[in-house]
Amino acid sequence: MTKVINRAIKLAGEKRIVGASKTAVTVLEYDVNSQISRCYGATKPTDGDAGYATGCIFMNTTGGASQTSYVNDGSSSSCDFNLAIGGTGDITAVVAGAGLTGGGSSGSVTLTVANTDGKITVGADSIDITAGSLVNADIADNAAIASSKLALATGSIIIGAANVGAALDLSGDKKILIGNGTTATSVDVSGDITISNTGETTIGANKVLASMLAEAITPSHVVKFAGNSEAEDATASVVITVAGVAATDIVTASILAQSGAAHILKVVPTENTITVTLSEAGGAGTQIAYQVLRAIA
Predict the structure, then answer these.
(1) 186 and 227 in a common domain
(2) What pLDDT is attached to residue 15?
(3) Rounded-to-integer distance, Cα 24 and Cα 34, Å
(4) How far apart are CA 120 and CA 54, in angstroms?
(5) Paired residues of 24 in beta bridges
(6) Contact 166/151 with Cβ under 8 angstroms?
(7) Could you read off the pLDDT of 206-216 as tens digits, one per residue?
């Protein structure tokens, strides 16, 4: 007849160093293939070690709550120990905190990121701001946004347009920025001056009028023509043709050269002509310098 033993079996176990990682364990049981089926120790066997039967139970003597019992889900040639039945745990509820929905106190629960305004995009392992969702009110008044973050073409500035910022191209050669009473625009310089792309301005030819001069420096006449007559063997009268001379002009003259000893008696302008009367014949090589003054209109 079979005898029943009603006493506990006390197993001291066999201390071993197992696997390539040389993990120290105390073996309590082997299977028929001499693979460890139950053991304990202070360090969980390293995954990939050989010598542990599939389903081997390892008891961690230094494990905390829920970290005392592991099972080999791998093979005898490459172990893979994962938590099994150690501990009972102490989580009684999963509460959805700020910005989350879901949770629960029993069964399988899920937490979901609240996204009522569509401003975030939740991925499998990321949370991002939804493109194009931010508005001006979302940006803090003291937000320090670097100008380098703005997409802006070279030579452009940001200017208000219809109450929003808009790019204004200022790269046009020799253009200037000017207001027009409503906004500002880039325009060419026109009128009496020109400007270079280095900022240098130049008054155009024949652009300064007498009316532009200060009263203290406004002359009564301006030089209209000036020059020298051709050298000639002059008599006592030298006639000089100057297109544009008027009878109302004032003409001054002087003798540049002569072979005689004449001096000027008078100078008379007529239309397109200046007549210089000498005291006597000037002789060979006589040349007269003249200057025609015209009254400012």
Answers:
(1) no
(2) 95
(3) 17
(4) 45
(5) 17
(6) no
(7) 888 777 878 77
- Name the residue type at position 33: N
d(CA 178, CA 180): 7
134 domain-assigned: no
First to last CA, the chain: 152
- What DSSP string runs through 34-76? S-EEEEEESSPPPTT-SSEEEEEEEEETT--TT-SEEEE-S-S
Domain boundary among 208, 230, 259: 208
H or E element at residue 195: strand 193-195
Helices (H), the chain: none
Q: What backbone phi and psi angles, to 5 degrees, belong to 128?
A: -130, 160
With respect to residue 127, please indicate whether it lies within any of the assigned structural domains: no
User: HSE (CB half, 13 Å, CA atoms) of 250?
Assistant: 8
Tell me if 144 is assigned to some domain: no
Locate 19 and state its tokens.
């696997």
Average pLDDT over residues 230-251: 92
- In this predicted structure, what is the pLDDT of residue 93? 81
Count how many domains the chain has: 3
Pairing of strands 14-18, 23-30: antiparallel
pLDDT at residue 149 is higher than 60: yes
Its domain, for residue 42, covers 14-83
Q: In what order do the strands lie in the sheet with 94-95?
A: 94-95, 100-104, 111-113
How far apart CA 18 and CA 31 sit, in angstroms, is: 16
* 253 within domain boundaries: yes
Provide CB contacts within 8 A for 33, sequence distance 6+: 53, 76
Q: Give per-residue pLDDT as tens, 176-219.
A: 999 989 999 999 998 889 999 998 999 988 888 777 878 777 78
Q: Which one-letter DSSP state was computed for residue 163?
A: T
* Residue in the block written with tokens 């060419």: 188
The three-state secondary structure class of 238 is strand
